[in-house]
Amino acid sequence: MAIRIGIGALLLAALVAVFSLRALPRPLTADLPADAYDAASAMRLNTELTRTFPSRRAGSPGDAALGDRVGAELRRALPSAAIDVDEFTSDTPDGTRTLRNVSATLPGLPGPEIMIVAHRDALRRGSAAEMTGTAGLIALARAAGQNRFQHTVQFVSTSGGSGGGLSGATRLAKAAKGRVSTVIVLGDLSGDRSRQPVVVSWGNTPSAAPLRLGRTVEAALRGEGLRPAPSESLWRQVVRRGLPATVGEQGEFDQAGVPSVLLTTTDSIASSATAPVDAGRFGASGRAAVRALLAVDMPRADVGPQQGSLVIAGRELPGWALRVLLLCLVLPLTGGALVLSIALARDGVHLLGGLAWTVGCAVGPLVAGLVAIGAGRTGLAWPALPAPFAGTAVQTGAGAWVLIGVLLLLLLVLTALARPFLTREVAGHHRPTRPSVAFGVFVVLLVTMVPLLVLDPLAAYLLVPALAAWPAAISPFPVVAPLHRAGLFLVGALLPLAAIVTVVSDLRVGIVEVPWWLVLLVAGGHITPVAMLLLSLVAGTAIATLLSVVPPVTNPVTGRRGGAPEREPRRRRRRPVADGEPFGGPAPQDEAPAPPVGPPGPRRRRRAPVADDEPFEGPAPPAEAPDPPVSPPGARSPRARPGRRRAAAADPGPRRRPPREPRRST
Questions:
Q1: Residue 85: count of CB within 10 angstroms of its CB
Q2: What are phi and psi of 312, to 5 degrees?
C-alpha cells in the first residue's frame, strides 16, 4: 500500500511540474542608440587611474584618493547632479578602516530610482581589469549627461567590495530599500575573449533577481555583438538558491529586496592583478550597459518582483510548484514513518528516548555557533561582515586556528554531555535503541524541512535523500550489513556535501581556509540565528546517524562501549499463568518436602509410541523366542552383571496402561 501511495505521489509531482511550466518573460528594449558612450575615452581613463592609484586596498590612502578623483569626474560629467560622500567605519581584511561611498544623483521624474554601482578598491596592486568597473561607471555618467531620463539615476562608487565583505554595498542597500527599483552593478568589463559575458542574478538570499531584468541586460549584450553565457544549469540554480553565497555587490541589494544584477565578463570574483584589458570588449560592454539603462528607464517599464522560480529547458517553473513537488516527495515518507512509529510504540520501544538523543547531538553545533556569533560581536573573529569572503580575502592565522580549536572542542564536549542528559531527563534511559534513534532522526529532519518549505524550498530538496537514507541506515534490519549502512549515510549526505563543495570552489576558497570561512559566515551574521538553528538540527541528525553507523569504541577507563545506541533487547517468552495462580507467578513455598529415602527403584525404559493399529497394551510378544546360542564344550559362560540381576528380580512383568479414550473424528 505504501509503495502504491509513493508511486502515485511521484506521478502527481510529474504532472504538476509539466503543467506549471510557463514561458520566460520578454526583455525590455530601448529605441535610443548607445552611441553616446565613448569607448576610447573610457579606455584612456582606465589606464590613467590604474597608473595613478596602483595600491587601493579598502580604507587605504590610495582608496581615499581614488574616491576623491571619482567624485571630481562625476561632478564634471554631470554638472546638474548632486554629489554626496558617505563616510563610515567597517571591518576589512586589513582591520577596521574608514570607507567612503561617492555618489552622483541625476534628478528625474518623481518615482522609483535607478542605480548604477561599481566598487573601486582592489586587494592586489595594479588590477587594471578590476578598475574597468570604475572607469565604465564614469564613462556611463558622461553618456547619461547627454540624455534625459524618466527616472532619477544615481551613480555610486563603493569601497570594500573587492574579495567580499561588501561593506559599501551593504550600507548602500539599506538606504536604497523601498526607494530604488533597479540596480545594475558593473564588474570586470574587459575580460578574456575566450570567456563569454555573464549576467549574475543570484544573491545572498534564496530569491534572485527578476527574470525580466536579467533577460534585459542579456538582450543589451546581444545588441552589441556579445554572446552572454547561457542560463545556469539546474544543479547550479539549486545550489545558488539553496545555499546562497556570493561576493558580488548585487547580493546585498538582493538581500535588501532591491532587484539587481551584475554585468561582468568573468564572474563575481575579481580578476587577477595581471589580467589584460581588451579595449574592444571594454567598449562593447560599456555600450551594453547604456542600452540596459535606457531600457529600464522606458515609461511604464517594470522589471517585476524578485524571482522565486527555476529555469528548466527554457521554461519557468514557479515557486509554488516547487513547494507542491516537495510535499509530494515528503508526504509518502511521513505516512510510512507514522505507521512504523505506531508499531514500535506498541512493541514497547521508547521513541522519546531516541528523539532526545538526536536533539542532544544538535546542542553542540548550536552552542558553538552562538559562541562564534559572540566572537564576531566582540572582535575576536574579524573581519566579521554580513557578506561572505572569497579567494585571498580569507586569511587564517594563529588566532584563527585557536578559535577554531576552541569551537571544535566545545562542539564535541557539549555533544557528548547533552545526549545522555536529555535522554535521561526525557525517557529515563541512558542508551536508546536503534529503532528509537531512527525515529528521532526522521522527526528532527522532518521538523527542519517544514520551515524550509516556506523560507528556502531548494535547501529542503537537498535534504530529501537524507530523510529516507539516514533512518534506514540506523534501523536494525538484519539484512543490512555495516558496509551498506555506511553507504546509506553517504547517500543522504551526498547532496549537501556536493552543494558545499560547489559554493566553496566557485568562491575559490582553499581547503585549509574552509573552517575559518565558515566561522566568518556565522560570526558576521550571513547565517542568521534561524538558519543557525536549522543547520544545527541537520548537523545533529548527521552526528546521530554517524554514531549509529560507526562501530562503538570501548572506553579504556570504564570498559564500556559508547557511541552507538544499543540494540533492542530480546524478549523471553513467559509461561502461561494457571487459573488459580496469581499474576506474579506461583507463590514460594515455606519448606520444600524432603525427598524419599530408600533404595533406588528400577530404571524405566522409554517405550516406543503406539501406532494407530496397535493395541494399547503394547506390541504383541513374538510367537516363538529364539533359542539361546550353544556354547562350545569347555567354554566359560559369561558372568551376568549384578545390576542386570537386580533389575530382573525387581521387574514383576509388563505393566498395563490405563485404557485410552477412543479418538473422536471431527
A1: 12
A2: -125, 115
* Half-sphere CA count of 278, side-chain side, radius 13 A: 15
Cα–Cα nearest to 548, from 447, 500, 631, 477: 477
Which tens digit of pLDDT belongs to each residue from 172-199? 999 999 899 999 999 999 877 777 889 9
* pLDDT at residue 545 greater than cutoff 90: yes
- Phi–psi pair at 87, nearest 5 degrees: -100, 140
Q: How far, in whole angstroms, is CA 360 from its chain's centroid?
A: 19
Q: What is the pLDDT of residues 283-339, one digit of tens each?
A: 999 999 999 999 999 888 889 888 888 999 889 999 999 998 898 888 888 888 888
For residue 135 the three cell numbers come to: 572607469
Q: What is the pLDDT of residues 226-283, one digit of tens each?
A: 989 887 889 999 999 999 999 999 999 999 999 999 999 877 787 777 888 989 999 9
Beta bridge partners of 117: 156, 185
* C-alpha cell at position 352: 522519546
**In this predicted structure, what is the pLDDT of residue 58?**
93
89 Cβ contact partners less than 8 Å away, ≥ 6 residues apart: 96, 97, 98, 99
Cβ atoms within 10 Å of 323's Cβ, excluding its own: 15
Q: Residue 242: which of 280, 207, 268 has the closest Cα? A: 207
pLDDT of residue 649: 47
CA distance 264 to 196: 9
DSSP run (H or E) holding 260: strand 260-264
State the first-to-last Cα distance of the chain, in angstroms, to the nearest integer: 40
DSSP state of 509: -
Residues 189 and 265 sit within 8 Å (Cβ to Cβ): yes
Of 215, 187, 156, 146, nearest to 281 (Cα)? 187
- The DSSP annotation for 259-284 comes to -EEEEESS-SSPPPTT----HHHHHH
Query: Do residues 232 and 331 lie in contact, with contact meaning Cβ atoms separated by under 8 Å?
Result: no
In this predicted structure, the answer to whether residue 156 has a pLDDT above a threshold of 80 is yes
Q: Which residues of 177-210 are buried (b: 16+ CB within 10 A; e: fewer)?
A: eeebbbbbbbbbbbbeeeeebbbbbbbbbbbbbb
What Cα–Cα distance (Å) separates residue 465 from each residue in 211, 299, 470, 612? 30, 48, 8, 64
Going by the DSSP 8-state scheme, the letter that residue 521 receives in this structure is H
Q: Give the pLDDT confidence of 94-141 residue by residue, as tens digits.
A: 888 999 999 999 998 888 999 999 999 999 998 999 999 999 999 999
| Cβ neighbours of residue 32 closer than 8 Å, sequence gap 6 or more | 147, 294
Per-residue cell: 369: 555557533
Which residues, in sequence order, are CB contacts of 562 under 8 Å at separation 6+? 552, 553, 555
- For residue 575, the one-letter residue type is R
Q: What is the mean pLDDT of residues 527-538?
A: 94
Which cell goes with 73?
Answer: 569626474
- Number of Cβ within 10 Å of residue 384's Cβ equals 23
The count of other CB atoms within 10 Å of the CB of residue 474 is 30
**Sorting pLDDT into bands at 50, 70 and 90, what band is 477?**
confident
One-letter identity of residue 462 = L
DSSP, res 305: S
The angle formed by the CA atoms of residues 184, 293 and 114, to the nearest 5 degrees, is 60
* Mean residue pLDDT across the chain: 83
Question: Cβ atoms within 10 A of the Cβ of 218, count?
Answer: 25
Report d(CA 125, CA 478) in Å as an integer.
63
CA angle 261, 267, 271 (to 5 degrees): 125
DSSP-assigned letter for residue 89:
E
